[in-house]
Amino acid sequence: MEYLKEIPKINYEGSKSKNPLAYKYYNPEEVILGKKMKDHLKFSMAYWHTLVADGTDPFGDGTMERPWDEETTDPLERAKIRVRVAFEFMEKMGIEYFAFHDRDIAPEGETLEESNKNLDVVVDVIEKEMKRTGIKLLWGTANLFANKRFVNGASTSPNADIFAFAAAQVKKAMEITHRLGGAGYTFWGGREGYETLLNTDMKLEQDNFARFLHMAVDYAKEIGFKGQFYIEPKPKEPTKHQYDFDSATVLSFLRKYDLMGHFKLNIETNHATLAGHTMNHEVRLAVDNDSLGSVDANQGDLLLGWDTDQFPTNVYDTTLTMYEIIRGGGFTTGGLNFDSKVRRASFTVEDLAYAHIAGMDTYAIGLRVAAKLWEDKAIEDILDKRYASYKDGIGLDIVNKKVGFKELEEYILNKKELDSNDSGRQELIESIINQYIIG
Ligand code: XUL
Ligand code: CO
Known about the structure:
Elements: E1 11-12, E2 22-23, E3 31-32, E4 35-36, H1 37-41, E5 43-46, H2 47-52, H3 75-93, E6 97-101, H4 102-105, H5 112-133, E7 136-141, H6 160-179, E8 184-188, E9 193-194, H7 202-223, E10 228-232, E11 241-242, H8 247-256, E12 263-268, H9 269-274, H10 279-288, E13 292-296, H11 315-327, E14 336-338, H12 349-375, H13 380-386, H14 393-399, H15 405-414, H16 426-438
Parallel strand pairs: 1-2, 5-6, 5-14, 6-7, 8-10, 10-12, 12-13, 13-14
Antiparallel strand pairs: 3-4, 9-11
The structure holds D-xylulose and cobalt (II) ion.
């Protein structure tokens, strides 16, 4: 049965096409830098936004027109229908990966046991659809923030029973991710943070968070789950101060608690900007620390102070993001997961297609431009020149730790004139990027 009659199979038609239901820049099979576009980008659909979000905001009701949700009032039956809709959508869009929270795919029951049974029923359907279509699971996760039991956090809750409940929930979420062959498992610290330090034992909460993650590592070994664990940084929202603030904070947390080899980062564009960073800063930091895992692709609105999770349409940003990803060697287990939702006023079924096309084409442009910049060494040559003083002489001695303060003092005292400083060439580089974008 076809649910999405409004959406045909979306094909690549090239940049001259005026067909709104076609890709203008994303040509999945086209080879760029020795790899197909689809393998560079590894697009993933976020189940929570595309199948579950109904457009509710703090001021009003849901607005989304989702006729398949009207077919039944039984939550479990509706969950099964949504799976079929999800796979029909991904097939038509040519999206080969998806990501979910446990509570997106199946309704929460009265008890954990009932919730787990619901999950098993829906996972059966997902498994069949994955086999039928070849679509793969990028990562799974557990929703440890929506239910009111998580009011004070999950693994950082002051209530040990809540820690235990969260552990049991993650155990099941890991099991279903494993069963579905998930390439990864994500920890986003839903309410792991605080509102006020006045009532918070930050040290105990962070220690507990680390204990929780170590338990996950142990359990993965026990069940043979080889997928990559990710932590997704975010500075605020829902709590005032989230513990996983940004890439730098998470990397230092992982180092402190001896978790570095077990976790990589899942970096989200809107979270980067909420932290006061650019996305390319966050990705660069991950790459430089051998920790780039995956990307939650979206964009925020810098005039608004919250996580708007908009579909990426800013070509400049996707160019710089793809540049950092290429520079880092590309994705292995990860991909570009659209943690993006249609605006509340974009409520029709077609809007789901328009939004994903916009996001995929914007990243395709980013990839095309970034690949050319990389191939031509348009930026790298300038960079190489800028740091050339560390390639020989005293610079190389510094890099090779051959000199200390005394030797450097001697070197300077003997030197009549310092080597001159060079221009940083920022405006030149920025105009080169413009030239590559416009072509
Ligand atoms: C919330 C967010 C989450 C995670 C998964 O801001 O990004 O949806 O991606 O829990
Ligand atoms: Co996210």
